[in-house]
Structures are given as C-alpha cells and as structure tokens.
Amino acid sequence: MSEPRTDAKICGMGHSMKRKEDPRFIRGQGRYIDDFVLPGMLYMDIVRSPHAHARIKKIDTTRALKIPGVLAVIDGPTLAKYNLHWMPTISADTQMVLPIDEVMYQAQEVCAVIATERYIAADGVDAVEVEYEPLPVMVDPHKSLAPGAPVLRKDKEGKKDNLAFHWQAGDKADAERALAASDVVISENVYLPRIHVASMETCGCIADFDTAQGKLTVYMTTQAPHAVRTVLALVAGHVGLSEERIRVVSPDIGGGFGGKVPVYPGYVVATFARDYHMKVELGAKKDGTMTSLKIKTVADHGYSNASANPSKFPAGLFSICTGSYDLKHAFCEVDAAYTHKPPGGVAYRCSFRVTEAVHAIERATDALAQKLNMDPAELRMKNFIKPEQFPYKSVLGWEYDSGNYGVALKKAMDIIGYDSLRSEQAEKRKKGELMGIGISSFTEIVGAGPSRDFDILGIKMFDSAEIRVHPTGKAIARFGTKSQGQGHETTYAQIVAEELGIPAAHIQVEEGDTDTAPYGLGTYASRSTPTSGAAAALASRKIRDKAKKIAAHLLEVSEQDLEWEPGKFFVKGAPQMAKTIQECAFAAYTNHPQGMEAGLEAVHYYDPPNLTFPFGSYICVVDIDRGTGDVKVRRFVAVDDCGNIINPMIVEGQIHGGLTQGIGPALYEEISYDDEGNISGGSFMDYYVPTALETPHWETDKTTTPSPHHPFGAKGVGESATVGAPPAIANAVVDALRHLGVTHLDIPITPEKVWTILKNKGVAE
Amino acid sequence: MIPAAFDYHRPDTLDEALKLLKKHGDDAKVLSGGMSLLPMLKLRLASFAHLVDIGRIPGLDTLKEEKGTLRIGAMVRQVALERSDLIRTKYPILADAIPLIADPLVRNRGTIGGNVANGDPGNDQPAIMLALGATFVARGSKERSIPASQFYKGLYSTALAPGEILTEIRIPAPPPKSGGAYAKLKRKTGDFAVAAAAVQLTLGKNGAIERAGIGLTNAGLTPVEAVDAAKYLAGKMPDEKTIAEAAKMAAAKSSPSADRRGSVEYKKEMARVLTARALRKAVQRAGGN
C-alpha cells in the first residue's frame, strides 16, 4: 500500500497520525502503577538472598516488627500454611513464591515486609536478619548437564539430572550427512549472554480485596492481563479466589519488552533473556551455495524454566534459524540446564528466541563468506529464498508467507554506498586503520499464533477486538492485547477508521481491564497487529455489513445496489444517494429495520491462519580505535519490510527504539556471574544501557511486501530491529578484524575484548 | 533505592553550617549537589542522621580569574563551568572533561566542590586538579589552604578535617604557551572512566617543556599524580619518543582494580594510551607540535 485510501480527517491506514496517547504521557498525566493510591493501602518490600545457594537457618524478624508501621513479615512457612509457597511458571515448571528452607539464586525473594508506608517497608527489610548456611553453587550450564552433577531441583520427585528440557527440530542424520558432503564447513561457538530489560517503569502490583463484594482487583504492570487473571484463578482457587471475582487492571505501562509477561513471585524480580551457548555449523558448496545447518545449544535457564514461550515451543521459535536462506538440510536442538541463577529464558523483545536464531545464522553466514573469501552481500544474495518461492516451506517446518529479500538488501547497499565503503576499507587497511562493514539480512517470525500449534498454559493464542459504535457515530474499541508504549490507542483506531470510515480521532481504544476487554493473550512477540489488529479489521467488517443493511433500509434500495467508500455507502450510479456511517449508526439506535437487532457492535476473536514473516536488511559501518579497542558505529542503515503499514511514524519509532536496544546487547549489556553465583551487572552502575549519546543516527527505509493471509496485509514490526541489529554490529566488528584472522567475537563486544585481539596480533597502539 | 531516615538542614551562612557540623559530628554530612551522596544513601551504602545542605549559602559560587589565580567556588555547578567562556578559552583541560562527567542531568546539579572533595578516585576533577597544581581552601574553625597534591589520603578519605567545609578551589592561571587536555575512556555516558588522563603543561621559548602536571582518574584508591613522568618531561622537547616514555612512566604509577570496565592489565594500558593522547593534545594546544 503506497498512498492512504482515507483522507486526513478519517486518518485510516498509511497516515502518520500523531499518537493519541502521547499528550497525556508527555504532560505527565499517564496513570502508572505508582499513581494508584487506594484508601488504607499497604506497601510491601522484599528481603533478598545475598547467596546463590544457601540453607535458611533462621529468619529473625524481631527488630523489623518493632519499627512503627511495620505490620508483618511474611515468609515461606507462612505461605505454606495456605499452600501458596510454590507457583507454576508460564512454561509449566514450578518456582518458589517464598522459600521454606533453601534459596536457589542470588537475589531470590526470602521474605516480604508489609508496612504502612513504602519507606517504612524499606526500613523493615533492612532490619530483618536472616542466617544462611552457604551451599555449593552451580553456575556453569555445561557442568550442570554433565553426568554425575548434583541434582539442583530436589523438589522434583525422581529428578535425576539438571535437564530442564530437551527440544529439537529437523532431521539430525540428514543435516549431518549434508554437512559431511559440503565442500566447506564453518563451525563457531556463539554465545548470547544474559541481558535484562530496562523499562523506564519497573514492575509493580497492587492487590485490592473488596470484602463487601468478595472481589479481588489487581492493578499490575502486565503485558498479558487476561492470562494473569486465569493464572491467579488457577493458583489461588483453593483459597477461594474464583475467576469471576478477579479483575486484573493493567494501567499505563512504561515499557515492557517481554519483562512484564511472566508472573513473578514477588512480582518484582524480573528475570532475564538469552544465555544461549550455541555451536553453529554451516556447510556450503565451493560456489557459496549453502547446503546444511546444524546448531546445538546449551541454554542456561537458572533454577526454574520461567520462559514465556508457547507450550509446544520450549525454545521459542528458534527453528527459524535457517533465516532468509534456501537451506535444504538443517537440524537444531536445545538442552536447557538448571543452574543457581535467577529463573528465566524469558524474552527480551525477541519474538520467542528469534534474536538467538538470527544471531546464529547471520554470524555463521559471515563466517562462511570469510572462509570462502566471498563478499558477505554476494553470499547472501546467492542464497536468499527467491521471491517466486513464496509461500516458502522451510526445512524446519515453517511456511514463510511472503518476502523479497534481495530487494531489501540491494536498497540498504545503495543507501549506504556499499561498494565505495569497501574501497574505503581497503584504503584504510593499508594505513593500518580499522573499519568494518556488517550486514544482517534477517527473517522474523511473529504473530503467534494459529491455535493448532500455539497456546500458553493451554489457552490458545488467538486475540480479540470488540467494537461498539455509539448513536452519534463515535466508537469504543477494546482489545485483548495491552500496549506498553507501542501506540495501540492510535494504531487500532486507524485500523477501525480504515475499515469503517469513522475518524480515528473518534475511536476510543481501551485495553488492560479484564472486566471490560475481551479475552486475549496480550502484547509481546510482535503479535498485536497480526492478531488483535486483524481482529479489529474483521470486527469492523462485521459492523460494516450490518451498517450496509441499515443504509439499504434508509435509502430504500437493495443491499446489492450499494457501494462503499471510506465513511459512506452510496447507490451505484447515483452517488448523491448516500448514507454516512454516522447516519447508519444513529439509525441503528433510532430507526433500525424491523426484524434486525438494535445497536451496532461486533466482537471478533482472530485465530491467525499462519504467522507473519517480516524481514529486513541492516548494514552498519564501524570504526575501531586501535589504542582502546573502542567500537564506534559510524553509520547504520535499516531497511525493514513489515508488509502494509498502519502508521509510518509509529513503525519508524519502533525501529528506532529497537535498533537502540540492538546496539545495547551488541556493545554494552551483559549480566554475568562469578563462581559463587554473584551477579555482576545487577544495577545500572555496571549494567550498561546505551543512552542517546551512544546511539548513532539511524537511517531507515522500507520495502513493502504484504502478508497474503493477514486481513490488511500487515506483519508485526515491534521486534524486527532488536532481532536484526546485533548481528549487523557483530559482523561489522569481525569484518574490521578479518584480515587479522578473527572469525568471531561474542557480544557484548567490549573495548577490552577488541583491544586484547589487537594486542595479541601486535597491532595495538 | 530508598534511603534510611535523616534530618535535613539548610543553613543560610557558612558559620551556621559549621556549627551544625560541629554539633552532629560523625552523624552529619555536607550535602552539595548531592550527585554522589544521594545515590549512596539510596543504595544504603551510607547513612547519615543529618544532611547539611550548603546550597543556599551565598558566596560559594565565585568563578573568576583574579591576580593570576582562577577562583572557583565550591558550589559552582558543572553546568556553569560547561557554559563559561573563561573555562572554554583558557582551561581546555576542564572544558574537555566536563562534557564527559556523568550526564547533563547530573551536571545540572553536581558541583565542582563535591567532585573534588568526595575523595572518589573515579571522579574526573581530582586528577585535573593534580595536573593543574590547584589548591583547595577549607573552612573550619579557621581558613586554611591544602594543595591538591596533599589532599587525597585514601578511598573517600581526604585531608579535610571533621567539621571542615571545602569552600573554594584556586588554580594558578596558566602562563602563555600553556596547554591542557583530558582524555577519557568510558563504557557509556553516565559511567565512570575505564581510565582517564589529565595533562597540563607549559612550553619554554625553545619549545621544550618547562613544566608539566599529569593526573590519572580511576587508577587506584586515590587520584594518581604521575610525578615521575612530569619530572621526566621537564626540560625535554615534546617529541613522540619522550611522550611515549612519559606515558609509560605515568601508567606505571597506576594501580587500578579489575571490574566490569576492564582487567588490571587493560586499565593500566589505557592509562598509558590516554596519557600519551592527552600529552599530544596539550602540546598542540600550547602551540608546540
């Protein structure tokens, strides 16, 4: 879609409408969890374990309870009385709410202090004295999986090892045969470290139990309020909480990025993403034709598998790892290990493990180009799935809906001036200067998902829209998703405007209140536009169908004689005989046809027939300081294709933010652990989140390849940039050091890592 | 991120502030811009029953050159230095450093007095003061001057006596043919230096170095003054070989500890690389080659 079909007044698809939610956000009028103050509200703060593994010998609350305003200290044994001390994770594992005897990772919740004021609760935490007996710590997932390793999850009856799960896709023997028959095979160990979301707003939760009505209202920073309600009903059903008496309200949220999908014990300790140790093997013929891919991953899941992945996909959609390439043979497997680290495997704006998959294939592709002494752009062009091959069935089982990869890469190369950059690089290399060019041509997989394959805890991953048109022709639309800054109030309004011709300004979008919104699985994994966005269009079309009947009634013509243009029905050949959508809406309440129900509303639960497969090509240029090893991103061009675009400005904003969150893990962010399981990088003092000053100028562009199965040809876009950017940067740095024999560097690429190479190769300043 | 309770005092005069410090002894702490102290309190790494805010005391915001001396009041905020033409034109060593201190929000509140008096070797301005040969003026029962080179005693430990407040920084105005530079490597905006080097030097008529001062940031428990390297430079022509040797000598004085910013080896090497870079720039600014 190139030009908008609607005018600026209606502001349907394709208009860069200013975000409807922004006036309240930029004026400080958003309503976040910390803005809720309820009568008699109490505050909770949490005592956390300083040890990664220890026995709790004693919790002494005497001093804490003496502080005026501290009302109670709740520990595991207290919860055990109500059988509330364990809870399920979204991945059907179990995790402690509060421990009875052992803590299993540093910073684990040990007990909770309840007080009349937030500050007093903090004082109370300070005053609780816990006596620990430190126990041996397991931090290495490889050692954890080795035979004879001590079993960590002793709570699991009969558990004899530390394997959280094993998952695989593809035909191993076939992939290995094809690798053996390849002319060239590269093998790289690629590690994606633990990182953590860094939302502006932290997680928070308020529970309000109305004893008169017997109803629990939970205000919570959650990306999936409906799922939380169901989880609450399942977890606490035995203490009398019944789902109709639970209301979950997710107010304005200041960023989620996946960190607000899971349900946490104290609903405060967020888990992490990544921590994948991948061995990647990629084979090719001499001419560069890729033949076979094999990836073996050891995933560090901490003490519990708390991933937010669809049930059938414990390693997410990692099997998208054949990427944008026409590979006929592939196999991948993941062994997930328990260790004494915080639970996880949760996403970070990664579309269910696609970041890991894209990193593996895009790094391997560059390593292959290096081994073949071929230009990495040329190698990609040669192996791309061709436009005529779509819909394309991948060897690991996905059906790519649409794509045109070569065009996107060519566009990125033209914008950045690829050939002249290569000449510049050759010149600089002669002078001993270090400059690199990195490409990432990623394929995303988003919009989970079709109910035949996708569910979380058994709940199918459809999503919903419910639209009511008021008598004056304005509308309210409610959704099962939940924006955390993505701009749903605008995007969804524009979809409805496109379909019904009601100005987007007059469509009130609401999400996040389980008492009013239709059921849905929430917002993450770039699924809102592919699912609820589609539902918005289809619900609108139901309304339009009914409005057409009303228009025919008002105009006293047959329905077949009517044509639609955004905003009105008119009689074929007599355009002056017309009824606007607003007139139809008024009639729906004042003058509806006999035999027709009054009102104008519809609800749609959209079960997508397939996922959508956005893609793009990113190219970046880096310069390396030979004295310090510091990497500067000089230019970064991002060409994205997310099908038909609803709001170009919002899409651009999503790409900008995603790219910035892409350079974070590529160059800065990491949470690591020492042998005792102590977290380093546990606060912003040493967890390096890039600021505006570290962020290069993003040069964005697009190609448009609509999704053939989505109602208006859109694909998700929220995570394309976080998925696609890190390997572009890693590839650029390796490219700068290629002539020194470097084939791989793990992210984050710190100055010291680069400097160490320069020193060892004798080229440091 | 919630501090323990404290009483907040905001005296209007220096005498009143000194009285409060005397009264509360070790329980009291001077609050200047608060950019180091408040995070420490919030993280409960430190706790004081009384904070004495010196922000409203008049006369602590001097910023002028007078009789060959640059006088900077302790309460002069980083943003004021950043915007000062005097600093920009005559004190490039400071002009280099200030935009690299934390972030704009911190520089709006943070003061030079707090930066130099806190005794944090990660702060940028102590090393600069060593390079510039600055003197700190302190007020307790009486006023006294402490040379920067004798001020830093240990980690967060300085020559300030209990009950004393740092009121002013005095820097000898650089004679003609002087140049200074600050070279800093940091992981990201807002972080302390991996390593940084402050250099101030003056060239003689023949182009040889007459006097040099070198300070290193985050290179040990205190800011490090590379005295040997500075002495080595005196009287020598600032050629590449001399600069390389001086940088090596300066780096040898550093004793950093390993953390997420880098290993000891890396940090020592960065002290060398950055000292050389700062020296080159300072020489260039002094009108040498």
Secondary-structure blueprint:
The complex is a heterodimer of chains A (765) and B (289).
Chain A: H1 22-26, E1 43-48, E2 54-60, H2 62-66, E3 70-75, H3 76-80, E4 86-88, E5 94-96, E6 102-103, E7 109-115, H4 118-127, E8 129-134, H5 141-145, E9 163-170, H6 172-180, E10 184-195, E11 205-210, E12 215-220, H7 225-236, E13 246-249, E14 272-284, E15 290-300, E16 329-337, E17 344-346, H8 354-372, H9 376-383, E18 392-393, E19 399-400, H10 405-416, H11 418-430, E20 434-443, E21 455-456, E22 459-460, E23 463-469, E24 475-479, H12 488-500, E25 507-511, H13 529-555, E26 562-565, E27 568-571, E28 574-580, H14 581-590, E29 601-606, E30 615-624, E31 631-641, H15 648-668, E32 672-673, E33 679-680, E34 698-702, H16 720-737, H17 751-760
Parallel strand pairs in A: 12-13, 14-17, 15-16, 24-25, 31-34
Antiparallel strand pairs in A: 1-7, 2-6, 2-8, 3-7, 4-5, 9-16, 10-14, 11-12, 14-15, 18-19, 20-30, 21-22, 23-24, 23-29, 26-27, 27-28, 30-31, 32-33
Helix pairs in contact in A: 8-16, 12-13, 13-14, 15-16
Chain B: E1 7-9, H1 14-24, E2 28-31, H2 37-42, E3 50-53, E4 63-66, E5 69-73, H3 78-82, H4 85-90, H5 92-97, H6 104-109, H7 112-117, H8 125-132, E6 135-139, E7 143-147, E8 152-154, E9 157-158, E10 165-172, E11 178-186, E12 193-203, E13 209-217, E14 224-225, H9 227-233, H10 240-252, H11 264-285
Helix pairs in contact in B: 9-10, 10-11
